[in-house]
Amino acid sequence: MTSTADPASPWSRTVRGMPAVGASAERSRVTRMRDVEMFSEMTGDMNPLHYDAELAARSAFGGLIVQGGVTSGILNALVAEELPGPGTVFLGVEWKFTKAVKVGEEITGRVEVTSVRPDKPICTLATSVRNAAGEICLSGTATTYTVPLK
Predict the structure, then answer these.
(1) Nearest to 138 by CA among 106, 105, 108
(2) Could you give the C-alpha distances from 133 to 8, 74, 104, 105, 130, in angstroms and in order?
(3) Which residue has the higher pLDDT, 3 or 76?
(4) Which of 13, 16, 69, 73 has a 20 to 30 Å separation from 136 between CA atoms?
(5) Nearest to 143 by CA among 64, 79, 57
(6) Confidence of residue 2 (pLDDT cuts 50, 70, 90)
(7) How many CB atoms lie within 10 A of CB 38?
(8) Which SS3 state, helix, strand or coil, does residue 136 take?
(9) Are 76 and 69 a contacting pair, CB within 8 Å?
(10) Is 90 exceeded by the pLDDT of residue 82?
(11) Distance (Å, rounded) from C-alpha 48 to C-alpha 101?
(12) CB 129, CB 107: distance < 8 Å
């Protein structure tokens, strides 16, 4: 990440400054049943594929899976905490969920800056979430805005 030297730049008032095209960040975590429960509490999503172990075992997924929001949630943490950093929110996302994530599976989220607007603190990111085997579970793009917090 490179901070802009121009004090008039909107990026100069962001916590981490203007990121460089090609900058990337990753974060990993193991999904838990508690993630499913908390997401269900927030959204009301009680899909049996998340709760009924017998049914889920007989499904195409072969076991309990986490909600897509749990899978994509790691990307929220990445953009808000690491790249572009504090104050960053999504303006838009286009994601494909290509492989379900099972409860207890380790996932790694990754973001990479593909474009940066110098006139506004807006970035386009390539985004992905992979499982421990390296298989892509989610891929796509996101557009972010970084609120100046300085």
Answers:
(1) 108
(2) 45, 17, 13, 10, 8
(3) 76
(4) 16
(5) 79
(6) very low
(7) 12
(8) strand
(9) no
(10) yes
(11) 15
(12) yes
Average confidence (pLDDT) over 45-65: 95
* Separation of first and last alpha carbons in the chain: 17
Handedness of CA 129, 108, 77, 5 (dihedral sign): negative
Distances (CA, A) of 10 to 4, 89, 144: 9, 16, 14
pLDDT category, 7, cuts 50, 70, 90? confident
Distance CA(9)–CA(3), nearest Å, equals: 10
- Tokens 């900058």 belong to which residue? 23
Q: What is the DSSP letter of 65?
A: B
Q: Nearest 5 degrees, angle CA 126-CA 28-CA 61?
A: 85
How confident is the prediction for the chain on average, in pLDDT? Answer: 94
Evaluate if residue 138 carries a pLDDT over 60: yes
| Alpha helices (H) along the chain | 33-43, 48-51, 53-58, 68-81
Burial 108-124 (b: 16+ CB within 10 A, else e): bbbbbbeebeeeebbbb
Tell me the sheet residues that pair with 122: 117, 145
